[in-house]
Amino acid sequence: MTGTEVTEDLWRRLAPQVLGTLVRRYGQFAVAEDATQEALVQAAAEWSRSGVPDNPRAWLTTVASRRMTDLLRAELARRRREETAAAWTYPLETSAADGAVPADKDDSLVLLFLCCHPALDPAAQIALTLRAVGGLTTAEIARAFLVSEATMTRRITRAKKAVRDSGARFSMPGGDAYAQRLGVVLQVLYLIFNEGYATTAGENLQRGDLTAEAIRLTRTVHRSLPDDDEVTGLLALMLLTDARRPARTDEHGDLVPMHEQDRGRWNAAYIREGVALLTAAVAHHNPGPYQIQAAIAALHDEAPTAEATDWPQIRALYEALLRVSDNPVVALNHVVAMAMAMADGADVARARLTEVAADRRIADHPRFHAVSAHLLEMAGDVEAARTAYAEAARRSTGIPQQRYLHGRAARLARNAQTSPPSAG
Amino acid sequence: MKYMILTYGSQQDYDGMAGQDTDLPAWTPEDFAAMGAFMGELNRRLTESGELVETRALAAPVHTRRVQNGSAGTPIVTDGPYAETQEVLAGYWIVQCDSFDRATEIAAEFANCPVPEHVRAAAFADVRPIDEYVADDV
């Protein structure tokens, strides 16, 4: 591999592996991160002169381990001077022979588990994951989440301190704790994905990178845990959702609803891959929320036209999803599927919507009013539908969403002028 | 030196931008896209020159909550305290540049932003130096 160009991709792949190995050997997340950074800096200088070594990961691990040992010794000396290190010893392992390096995939995974430690709040879990496992710089993460670099630095520093204070060992939790932690990991990855996906429209184009990063990280987890059906389901869900991104906005950057999207612009490769992953997962008859959501996304993606969508099946899947998750947005989507699945669906769905509105989390949400408007429109109550669209627009704070909702209201007004007055 | 450039708009302006007709016509998709492209390009240039510290757009005035001191020591919260046509802060840019004149030059570029004529005629921006003494002291 000597002489190979040092690519961005190589750095991003190596950094978390080296960091993972160091943290597993020595603990001390923050020190390990400093040592890894210094090794990367040294590599950047030396490799540009003499080329990339045959085993760049082993090279980096050796250099970083040496640096880590130095830093820990210095730290230990400082603590001794302060006479506070009563019974504190570090495992000062110095050899980093190639043979001692275990399978890299496991170290990346263990690192991901550490970053999603339950002592951290979700914002900290996300930041630490992107930094330590994703290899993004603090400035990049700050930009993606629209906070200043100083704020993000503090958030990451606090997160590392919380991990240290919790006394977490750098090891895989066992038994129930393992399943629980994997659940948090998947949730964090899904949050990163949504953070990017929900805001790709509008002025913050760089946030689209977050969806790509979430997919990349989820692929890593899937490679390590190919037999976990929910991991597979999450990867499928991300691919099947992101597949629609090219058609989600028009040439002006305005949002295009799914039934009006040009399906020819959907990413066919992502759809194929997502469907194949999902098919393999569901064959094990071990369903979970990510597989169910992926199945819903697949039904939309595979429909040749909006009219050909299998709404009865989507409705059944939302019912299955509601049984395993108490999410008000899922309840709203279920109402929409009810309306679409039956000839007289709008009336049934409106009755159900009234029940859903009892949940305070949903009654103030712009989407509640948008769904209400949609059902009123289906039932032919133009005036009430317009009022509901305007209410949804008033409650949302994103201008692209507002433009879409006002556009729906305006179109209703135009149609009302040209068609006979509705009885509804 | 750091300067804050402030821009203003009313609820009526926001409604127009969100595609709603008021006494004034709503923005067309082309209007909205042109403004987005202009602002994106301006922000990119200011980022590249290293002058942009940060910039934010604020949500519509109707989402404002005003908090005031009440008589019995309990704060009084008013939702949406502004009149429909009252101009309030709509967005800001913090820039770090060599002189007040350079900051003014940046603010003057907003005049080139492609917006509907009735918006353009009424638009203005303020440039205010940021009190660095306090910022450095804390």
TrEMBL record, chain A:
Transmembrane parts of this sequence: none
Keyword Transcription: yes
One Pfam family recorded for the sequence: Sigma70_r4_2
Sequence ranges assigned to domain RNA polymerase sigma factor 70 region 4 type in this UniProt record: 113-162
Domain DUF6596: 181-281
Residue stretches making up the RNA polymerase sigma-70 region domain: 10-74
Keyword Transcription regulation: yes
Assigned keywords, A-Z: Sigma factor, Transcription, Transcription regulation
UniProt xrefs under PANTHER family: BLL6612 PROTEIN, BLL6612 PROTEIN-RELATED
Similarity annotation: Belongs to the sigma-70 factor family. ECF subfamily.
Protein name, as recorded: Sigma factor-like helix-turn-helix DNA-binding protein
Originating organism: Streptosporangium longisporum
TrEMBL record, chain B:
Domain YCII-related residue range list: 1-109
Matching InterPro entries: Dimeric_a/b-barrel, YCII
Annotated SUPFAM superfamilies: Dimeric alpha+beta barrel
Transmembrane segments: none
Family: Belongs to the YciI family.
Protein name: YciI family protein
Organism expressing this protein natively: Streptosporangium longisporum
